[in-house]
Amino acid sequence: MLIQRDDSLLLVVDIQEKLAPAIYDSERVVANSVRLLEGARQLGVPAYVSEQYVRGLGASLDAIRQAAVDAKFFEKTHFSCASEPGVVETLRSAKRSQVILAGTEAHVCVLQTAFGLLTAGFQVFLVADAASSRTPENRQAANDRMRAAGIDIVTTEMVLFEWLQQAGTDDFRKLLPLIK
Asked: How far apart (Å, rounded) are the C-alpha atoms in residues 33 and 26?
């Protein structure tokens, strides 16, 4: 199934000051998460950003905060966003059934969030080039496990192009800098 702009929302998980430097391929994860946040903003896709235990891990990176100007932020202590009180209800209030998921760490918070959202009835799409862990082995194991559970594994460009659906539109021209 394709990602539908009018039926999806974006959730960026825990790309924070003290954790991001330890993440494998962190620069790519951050850059692609920023592209997703900017694309969501330009196309009117609701976006959410979680922050795990801010006192210990710091706030979201500046690049994430700057790109997430229209996003709703929430702090959590559960590893799964779906286990944090009120989060599933907040996501449901957007009246969208598809969740585009990015962030860190893929084998902990992202994986547990994906499974929780799947259990809550959402269709979940993991953006593989916008999610990682401290080691490539943990990232790969998380991707494999999520795929086996029925979570769609996609890339940043897949998301952007599926949100757009066609070239030659004003939306396509707006997003072209994010694609090039």
From this structure: 10
Which tens digit of pLDDT belongs to each residue from 91-112? Answer: 999 999 999 999 999 999 999 9
Q: How many domains does the structure of the chain reveal?
A: 1
Which pLDDT tens digit goes with each residue over 18-42? 999 999 999 999 999 999 999 999 9
Q: Which residue numbers are catalytic?
A: 14, 76, 109
Domain interval for residue 18: 5-179
The dihedrals phi and psi of 124, each to the nearest 5 degrees, come to -110, 135
CATH number for 167: 3.40.50.850
Return the bridge partners of 50, or none.
13, 74
Separation of alpha carbons 32 and 35, rounded Å: 5
Asked if 139 contacts 41 with a C-beta cutoff of 8 angstroms, the reply is no
Which alpha helices (H) appear in the chain, and where do they start and end? 26-43, 54-57, 62-67, 87-92, 111-119, 136-148, 156-164, 170-179
- Round to whole Å and give the CA distance between 137 and 33: 21
Residues whose CB falls within 8 Å of the CB of residue 173, separated by 6 or more in sequence, listed in order: none
